[in-house]
Amino acid sequence: MAWALVVVAGLFETAFAVSLKQSENFTRLWWTVSFTACAAASFALLSLALKTLPVGTAYAVWTGIGAGGTALVGMFFLGDPVTTVRIVAILLILGGVLALQLAPSAAH
Known about the structure:
Keywords: Cell membrane, Membrane, Transmembrane, Transmembrane helix. This protein has 108 residues and is mostly helical. It has helices at residues 2-22, 29-49, 55-77, 84-102.
C-alpha cells in the first residue's frame, strides 16, 4: 500500500510541475490552484508513505516518477523536444526507480 501511495504522489508531482509551468508565474488562477492542490496532495501522500518506507528510497522513487512523468508530458503535450538522448535518459531514470523499489532494505 505504501508504494502505491508513492506512485500516486509521483503522479501528483508530475501534475504540479506541469501546472507550475502552465500558471505562467502564478498569473493564471486555475493553473495556480491546480499547482497548489497537486503539490499538497503529492506531499501528503508521500508523507503517509514515509511512515513505513525508507526515506531515501521512497524519495528517490517519488522524484523519479515526477521527473520522468514531467519530461514525458512536456514532450508529448507541451512541445518539448523529443530526442533519442531524452528518451534514453527517461528510461534510465525509470530503470533506477524500479531498481530502488526492488532493492532489499534493512528492517528497523
